Amino acid sequence: MTSTSAGRSAGQSAGWGAFAAAEPEFAARAEARFAAFAHHVLATLRADGSPRTHGLEVRFLDGELWLGMMPDSAKALDLRRDPRFALQANPGAGQGMDGGDIRLSGRAVEVTDPAVRARYTAEVDPPDPDAFHLFRTELTEVVRTSVEGAQLVLRIWRPGEGVRTVRRS
Fold first, then answer.
1. Are 64 and 21 in contact (CB under 8 A)?
2. The pTM is what?
3. Are 67 and 41 in contact (CB under 8 A)?
């Protein structure tokens, strides 16, 4: 993994494809972690700014990470109001964290383009193809936490910075 000291401007983000192109091994590990379980945890912000968590399924299609939601669900309404989110991959049973723990942060961009929604619908087959919210993610950070020997190891990627590794004993 690489690390650079290049600074990032506030608000810089990148789609999943840009992350995968910049850090293919890290992205593959993250995708595998999300693929291991169907349900994950999405954190959004309520109108008063307090956090709210939701169960969610995610999809990796066409080089993007997609979040699909039921019509007018709290999570969709939260993201429409404030697009910032955090997404935690399901860590699995027990305390093993097989494959490491993956967390993402960023902004969710609602997609209304009929052609894009049709491609997503053809691939995913949502319960009501005419009434659902679809968001494309723009990442501001990807973090993988793992245990290596007696150390907790965090690998942190941010757009424009590459991967930084932090080891804690």
1. no
2. 0.88
3. no
In this predicted structure, the answer to whether residue 55 has a pLDDT above a threshold of 90 is yes
Closest CA to 110 of 73, 149, 151: 73
Residue 78: exposed, middle, or buried by beta-carbon count in 10 A (0-12, 13-18, 19+)?
buried
Distance CA 94, CA 98 (A): 10
DSSP 14: B
What's the rounded Cα separation, in Å, for the pair 166 and 60?
27
Cβ neighbours of residue 55 closer than 8 Å, sequence gap 6 or more: 39, 40, 41, 42
CB atoms within 10 A of CB 95: 7
Length of the chain: 169
Do residues 61 and 68 touch, judged by C-beta distance below 8 A? no
pLDDT at 5: 35
96-116: average pLDDT: 90
